[in-house]
Amino acid sequence: MTFSIALNKINDMLSSKSINNLADCYASEIKPRHVNTNHNILINKDGKYTWRSLCLIHPLLYIDLVREITKETNWSLIQSKFDDFKSNPKITCMSLPQVEIFEPYGIGSRIAFWLEHVEKESIRSSLDFQFILHTDIANCYPSIYTHSIAWALHGKEFAKKHRSCKKLLGNKIDKKIRQLNFDQTNGIPQGSVLMDFIAEIVLGCLDRILSNKLDDSGIGKYKIIRYRDDYRIFSNDREELAKNF
């Protein structure tokens, strides 16, 4: 199933009109009749008692957020931040959304990317390190604090000082995500490439913080491969691995 036709039409509509003129559901105070603005699907993760909520965001709200992110100045800022996040070659993010190389075979392309850049890279790293630790961030997407998006883009102190600035990109993204999620600050919707990208802004910032913490601790011999909130951490010191990770 593809939503490209509907999304293209909505994009054309938003080129000439503000979203506030198209949908009253995009208001800071969410009213009861708008409780079903998005479509949520529950899936079972392990065949037991663990469930995950996937969200199909209303296409009007989806495109509005995409248009804000991809404005030239905003996109340049985001790109510069990702360059900063990956400044430590020992921490590698393998989960940034990719352009599909083989259009008809999107799933196959993603599997090939996973095998080449996660599995094979792990094998290559195992030649240099004796131990590996697999870990993840529990309940990652539902735990993301929306204000932390601005912290990641602009620095926590600056963002907190300018939290009322409506022109700040991080504040704009924060507000739009809260408005499509009943004005909640806890959690972002899961199940779309757009929200994967938003999550990478926060997770990329965490990579930078982790890098600084490891430098401060004098730990230099390690390798980390991250795919979204899943981490593969390589080290030659088992005690150091257990203590610091």
UniProtKB/TrEMBL annotation:
One of the Pfam families matching this protein, by short name: RVT_1
Protein name, entry field: Reverse transcriptase domain-containing protein
Origin species: Piscirickettsia litoralis
Domain Reverse transcriptase: 1-245
Domain of life: Bacteria
InterPro entries (alphabetical): RT_dom
